[in-house]
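Example 3.2
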Amino acid sequence: MIRPSLKDRVVRKVAGVLIEKYFPSEAIDALAKNHFSKMITVVCRDHLQDVMVTLAKNHCPTMIAVACRDHLQDVIREINNTTKGHFKYVGNGKIKVIVGAGPQQLLGWLSTNINILNITQDASWRNLFNPNSIDNILAEHVVEHLSLDELYRALEHARTYLKPGGIFRIAVPDAFHPSRYYYNLVKPGGWETPEQHKLFFDYEMMTRIAEKSGYRMRLLEYFDEQGIFHQELYSLDEGAVQRCAKNNCGLDLSDKTVIERFYSSIAEPLRQQFYDLKMTYTSLIVDFMK
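Structure, written as tokens:
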């Protein structure tokens, strides 16, 4: 016997709730034709609140999560068409957003990927948020995947939706990192992501970008031109970066060949700081403040 896919089980469960409680022929027809967007249209127009309450009572958070993960922009668009644009994400007291999150989850933060929030498109921000409503944004190793024009657009949109005083925390590979192994790993065209990385930042470049984009900038972790590491205390509540000096992740520490290549590619006078701080792979980490 072939087990139905999770999507099929979701659709069948939603159909069961609708059939049992309301018998809305339009929804049943849409489900029968497997037109997911039409199903959302009907549900949102006629029975959204009741159906979601019924699903919650039936202990179906997984179904809701799958629908939002795979079709969130469709869901939001239909809700806004139904409610004349009144749906917005409000968070839990504060609005904190991770962009390009991948599997990253932080308590109290909304994790988004491009299918949920395309940071280069204003319409994508507008679907989810009100202007001047976001407290914190976190982008860890995301913006180096953008072109410079795309980055400026993303920063402009983020500035529109951040609260006054809101913080956009950005972590990227550091072009002033003194390890040539690290440099060749993460540079555009490098070993790690040869096609994906488009930009390579140092603290001076970040400073110019912040000024041009209308932000104040605070340097949190970075190497200077001489390869000296600098670090400021900062609140993890405003965005916990995984690939930072303290966590020492990003390289396979169990691979002795990799670690040897990493340390041997650092000029000897600069090597001791890595031993002292017990760090290898670090990021350039900055706060862009509205």
